Amino acid sequence: MLKVGFAFNFNIQRCEIEVGDEEQIIRKGYEQLLKLFIKHNLKADCFVSGFSSELIQQMAPDVLQLMKENNGKHFHYGTYTYTHPIPQLLTHEEFSNQMAWGIERDKSILGITPHGFLPPEFAFTKDMGRVLRDQGIRWFIALASQIKLGLKEAGEDCDAYGPCRVDLGDGTSLIAVPAAYELPDCPPRYEKLMMKGEIPVDQVIGGIKKFAAEHPDGLLLIKRDAETIFIDDFNSGFHGTFGVMDEFLGKLSKIEGVVPVWIDEVVDAAGEMPEISLPDYLGNTKIETFTEGAAEPIWNKTKLVREKIFEAEKNGTDPAKVAEAWKHLLLSHNSDGRIGYWHSKWNPGEHKVAPSRRKFIEDNLDEALKCLE
Predict the structure, then answer these.
(1) Are 45 and 70 in contact (CB under 8 A)?
(2) pLDDT band at 344 (very low <50, low <70, confident <90, very high)
(3) Contact 141, 177 (CB under 8 A)
(4) How far apart are CA 283 and CA 289, in angstroms?
């Protein structure tokens, strides 16, 4: 029996899409994806940034209603920060606020109290883990490749495709759940290549069958952007993304021995887990993507705003002004508006930032400074 789960991250602030044009992501991406999972009677864990929840509520309340009606039927919801920052560029206070603001919107908009977290770009540090624990998070998703390294270092001879406990360095731990970016007989990032029409669905289905044979009691957790149907069409020029996802989910649902699962079900059934340590990991990008080149002026201003907020708190500045400055700083954190050059081994230089997306970041940094004048 192979347990198959999906982890979809909802980051509506896509770098390529102008501010104000996000409804096409909802209608051509989110709505179609959700309805396909309902059609094929499959399960998915959805991780919605707080800002994404706000815009879905504003632009497409019917889609929000669809999400809420199918909570516990086809979908479970975890948390995904407020505005999708790069966590390792944040201070402890910034990451803590990103989590708190995101969780507040999970509660007020989605109507759920999350206890699972998908880190943007799979970034993880022990300090992040302690923030997650303190805010009621029980488990997070990590790359299977990172889990394998942790198991090897711990001398644990067990399958990497199952949950394990990650030592946070203070006598406590969080549960890590591995996401797989590789399948037998398929290239790395097979799911993205499939959605762009570069490898056939049947090749991926064959890889899943072989994975099932190699990991009969394992978890195959497939992670994708929730806007995949729209954005992979938008970026690639391949216009068959809906058909690809429909075909893939239809064939997956018919594989003998495959059981659709939510992550909570896997964690609850795991029993005793191996305990490992994970190294600090920036994620599937590089820091210079957001600090050098065209990104450098924004990064320098971000550090200035941060310092002024901390100074204002220390000096007893009007708490209302400080809170307003914090709001604008958190809004400015969105990584997609901050890209200078996309330093990625997967798609180097592919992502272009829409002018209004960049301006959104700059304007919020300027507003934060005005609050503290």
Answers:
(1) no
(2) low
(3) yes
(4) 12
Question: 246-266 burial, b if ≥16 CB within 10 A, otherwise e?
Answer: bbbbeebeeeeebebbbbbbb
On whether residue 324 sits in a domain, the answer given is yes
Q: Which residues contact 166 (CB under 8 A, 6 or more apart)?
A: 129, 142, 150, 173, 174, 175, 176, 275, 276, 277, 278
pLDDT digits (tens, 9 = 90+) for 34-67: 999 999 999 999 999 999 999 999 999 999 999 9
Identify the residue with better confidence: 239 or 345.
239
91 and 194, same domain (yes or no): yes
> CA 223, 227, 233, 239 torsion: positive or negative?
positive
At 284, is the secondary structure helix, strand, or coil? coil
With contact defined as beta carbons under 8 Å apart, do 219 and 266 qualify?
yes
Please report, for the domain that includes residue 152, its CATH number: 3.20.110.20
Residue 350 domain-assigned (yes or no): yes
